[in-house]
Amino acid sequence: MNEKINQYLDEIEKEKEVKILLACETGSRAWGFPLLDSDFDIRIIYICKKRLVFVPF
Q1: First to last CA, the chain
Q2: What is the distance between the alpha carbons of residues 44 and 24, in angstroms, rounded to a whole number?
Q3: Domains in the chain: boundaries
Q4: Mean pLDDT calculated for residue range 39-43
Q5: pTM surpassing 0.90?
Q6: Are strands 41-48 and 18-26 parallel, antiparallel or unpaired?
Q7: Burial class of residue 53, CB neighbours in 10 A (0-12, 13-18, 19+)
Q8: Any alpha helices (H) in the chain, and if so which ranges?
């Protein structure tokens, strides 16, 4: 499963043009009580290009 998650994170980097600095698992799996049908929750810290940052002013 780790390989599948890593491939997904690589796809996000390419598609969104970001550099992922840290990705960590959250949710029921991180707490150690996943169900058989539990999904994977991931939180990401990333760097994006300046053109992707929107300023409301």
Answers
A1: 43
A2: 7
A3: 2-37+46-52
A4: 84
A5: no
A6: antiparallel
A7: exposed
A8: 2-16, 28-31
